[in-house]
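Good morning,

Attaching, inline, the backbone tokens for the sequence recovery test we're adding to the shared suite. The designed sequence is right after.
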């Protein structure tokens, strides 16, 4: 399979309301990123093989897993990176954008009512999807002008899927940006 890299890579991020059910990525959900690093984080369970006659590879089993994806990007004015910030605070969106370049993020009283769906193209015909992910950290960093503000998002997902009926390869390929201002 041919890897998709650089400017040809496409990913989308959107707030979802139901755990385990992916939100459909559409117009305005395109995530422009510098790097996207998924890790499966699987644990290996193995008993002590001393005296059993088994070698370790025969006695190992898959344990718990925790799919984590780290995204590094330039912070945009009204891009999906803000959806991760809103979800971190339990909100559905960043709220109404007021005049100028300001955002209001309100803390939700009841946490974990919102989740994030992340979909991206991995290879020439395959995708990766987190149907339900939570934002575990957001890091904003700025250097002296004229640099952009950098945003690092860390997502913890319930699963890492390589096929989806909601966000297919063609669906992810068709998503667009709603605002390109940085």
């Amino acid at each position: 399979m041919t890897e998709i890299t650089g400017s040809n890579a496409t990913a989308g991020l959107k707030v979802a309301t139901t755990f385990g059910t992916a939100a459909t990525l559409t117009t305005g959900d395109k995530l422009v990123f510098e790097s996207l690093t998924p890790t499966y984080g699987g644990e290996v369970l193995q008993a002590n093989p001393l005296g059993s006659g088994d070698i370790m590879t025969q006695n190992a089993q898959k344990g718990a897993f925790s799919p984590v994806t780290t995204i590094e990007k330039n912070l945009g004015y009204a891009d999906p990176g803000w959806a991760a910030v809103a979800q971190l605070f339990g909100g559905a969106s960043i709220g109404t954008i007021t005049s100028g370049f300001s955002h209001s993020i309100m803390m939700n009283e009841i946490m974990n009512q919102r989740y994030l769906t992340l979909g991206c193209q991995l290879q020439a015909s395959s995708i990766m999807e987190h149907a339900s992910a939570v934002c575990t950290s957001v890091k904003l960093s700025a250097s002296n002008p004229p640099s952009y503000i950098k945003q690092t998002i860390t997502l913890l997902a319930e699963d890492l899927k390589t096929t989806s009926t909601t966000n297919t390869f063609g669906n992810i390929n068709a998503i667009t940006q709603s605002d390109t201002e940085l």
